[in-house]
Fold this protein.
Amino acid sequence: MTKVITFGNFKGGVGKTMTSVMTALDLSKDGKKVLFIDFDPQGNGSDVLAKTFNINYLDRPTIFEGLEKGELTKSIHILDDNISIVPSDISLVGFQFLLSDLTKNDYSKRAYYLDALIEPIKKDYDFIIIDTPPTISDFTNNAVLASDYIVLVMQTQLWSLYAVETYIPYIHQMNTTYGSECEILGVVSMLLDKKGSVDNDVIRKAKETFGETMFSTLIYNRQRVKRYSSEGVPLLLEKNSSIHDKDALNMYKQLNIEILDRIGDN
């Protein structure tokens, strides 16, 4: 059965988009059929995947055009045999106005609009990964109600920790209000500096607050990962590949193993 996972935090710049991209790529390399839905008007996830596969989206409608037409099929761009994308661009900022026109302020329809459009295409994928903007908004509401699981991405700084603490009751409130069953899969710590006293203090506080909800995998701050945002992610690692690439990709591989274990899909 298809699993829908949203990656979220109400604070920007925490590594959320790269984590969602790396998860989608790793799942696809393991032979899973994956659809990446870029639900962020910044379109950063779309940009990284375009560079990774050396393609552009000029011949395909974006997610906003699919939302306008009420079906996403024509907005799906195949990247390779196992991974496809519904790309985003700045036009997606019109989503909230579109919802007002389409749903006439029917709050249930407004919150479940993305879920309704995902439902007909679920059968074609093992996993659907959703990247969201760092806001409490119609974007996040729709993503949560379309998802089976939420992975909370926390940079090791206090503001990011506080944002995660806010996100958890928000999910519970959404489940209560709409009768949904979205599950918090875990909290992953990102951009960690091993020697940083603040980083380690935030990790300690997060473990005290979230307990076993914390993933044991830690994603350290790596210059190589920053390079992926401008050059794309290396898909094939050979014997002569950089040790830095192998180290960076292995961190996300270990996180994916934990994600699958928690889902029970490993």
The beta strands are 3-8, 34-38, 77-78, 83-86, 127-131, 149-155, 183-192, 214-220. The longest strand covers residues 183-192. The longest helix spans residues 158-178. The radius of gyration is 18 Å.
